[in-house]
Amino acid sequence: MNAYVTPVAGGAAVFAASPLVDFIRANRFDRPTLVLSREIVARNYRALKAGLGRADIHYAVKANPAREVIETLIAGGSRFDAASRGEIELCLSLGAQPGHISFGNTVKRASDIAFAHAAGITLFAADSEMELDKIAGHAPGAQVYIRLLVGATGADWPLSRKFGCAPERAVGLMDHAVSLGLAPVGLSFHVGSQTRRAGMWRDTLDQVAAVWAGARAAGHDLSLINIGGGFPAFYGENVDAPTEYAARVMQLVRARFGEVERIMAEPGRGLVAEAGVIACEVMLVSRKSDRDMHRWVYLDIGKFSGLAETIDEAIRYQFVTPRDGDAMGPCIMAGPSCDSADVLYEKRPVMLPTSLKAGDRVLIRNTGAYTSSYSSVGFNGFPPLDVVVI
Fold first, then answer.
1. Neighbouring residues of 215: CB distance < 8 A, sequence distance ≥ 6
2. How many other β-carbons are positioned within 10 Å of the β-carbon of residue 347?
3. pTM over 0.85
4. H helices within the chain, ranges in order?
């Protein structure tokens, strides 16, 4: 606990009972604060692992790099997907083994590749000739997997074309890797963030399986399939339970790839989203004119202080207030900064109590993923999202 938390008595009776909510009810925060539960992180890990079976979980550190999260996952047996030198250093400093860390970013600084290699990391991602050249020059003999660009999957937050190569380029990249003295061991992909149903993986797995078969036919003895992330969290729309979801994905993988020597999965959101609740405050409720159909509700947290995933209203967070028993009405929700882009939900207004007023506490459910890691250092003078782990 940090200096920004002071105990208070009582709390709103309408807040649902849980260790996270009980802690928030018992404390006051003078700025937006994410409260995280180690136990929920551990529980989510066990649930996903039960479904994934022999697949290695490599937690996507970018989802939430809190030291306590990393420590909890190390204790549970997790491995890690790191995207930078900083994430590698974090995991190593907390006791993760170098052989349990993969350098999964396909755009890496040469000096960071050299650092990772010297630290004992042997598995790197690539999707281009130049990246393979850098790996060969600074991590000679390393194992590499080629990331594929896959088509639309129905994910709530589809990934862009930024990472991955076209399927028809994969074998050529493997050939290039061999010519450089590297060991191309497999393929990776990402089905898209917040893929709510396991069945949505079918088309993507079919695409990857075709590349896999082509690479093996070309003489590459592949042993690794990295199925990436996409494991969902609850944001108001039903999702499959984690164990059943992961088990179904593994069934789909086995049906297409058989008994692959090694399978990796890189959950981030699915491990930490539901482990966190943000406590924040209403700053203002207003209407722009007498004819305005919707109220504007301004919170003391916005896009730049942790809620970046409201971009395009892709992730629909759930809100709890002390007035949820009152009449409800639609509102436009915005953050506190003086940037006109800092509007959270407008295309699809949010239903909130009509009695809501400035000073009311608001809880934002299932915000353990991509909030503290997206929070700015202090845009417009508003403090970054604080984090308390219980």
1. 170, 171, 174, 187, 222
2. 8
3. yes
4. 19-25, 38-52, 67-76, 85-93, 110-119, 129-138, 170-179, 202-217, 242-257, 269-272
Alpha carbon distance 267, 66 (integer Å): 16
CA angle 366, 369, 374 (to 5 degrees): 125
Token match 């109220």: residue? 295
CB contact at 8 A, 374 and 64: no
Q: pLDDT digit string (tens) for 32-69?
A: 999 999 999 999 999 999 999 999 999 999 999 999 99
How many residues are present in the chain?
390
Burial zone of 355 (CB within 10 Å; 0-12 exposed, 13-18 middle, 19+ buried): middle
Instruction: Give all strands (DSSP E) within 178-312, no chain letters.
Output: 183-188, 224-226, 262-265, 276-286, 295-299
Q: What is the distance, to the nearest Å, from the Cα of residue 41 to the centroid of all Cα atoms in its chain?
A: 13
Q: Whole-angstrom distance between the N-terminal and C-terminal Cα of the chain? A: 8
Between 38-52 and 242-257, two packed helices, what is the crossing angle to 10 degrees?
A: 30
Find the DSSP H helices in 94-201: 110-119, 129-138, 170-179
Closest CA to 188 of 240, 134, 265, 248: 265
Q: What is the pLDDT of residues 224-267, one digit of tens each?
A: 999 999 899 999 888 889 999 999 999 999 999 999 999 999 99
User: How many Å apart are CA 131 and CA 374, to the nearest integer?
Assistant: 26
Cα–Cα distance, 223 to 318 (Å, whole number):
41
For residue 337, give both structure tokens: 């900064």
CA-to-CA distance for 321 and 272, rounded, in angstroms? 23
Looking at the DSSP bridge assignments, the partners of residue 144 are: 124, 184
Closest CA to 306 of 385, 389, 194: 385
3-state SS assignment for residue 107: coil
User: Beta strand 386-389 with 5-7: parallel, antiparallel or unpaired?
Assistant: unpaired
How far apart, in whole angstroms, are the C-alpha atoms of residue 138 and residue 362? 49
Amino acid at 371: T
Residue 309 is encoded by which pair of tokens?
């995933």
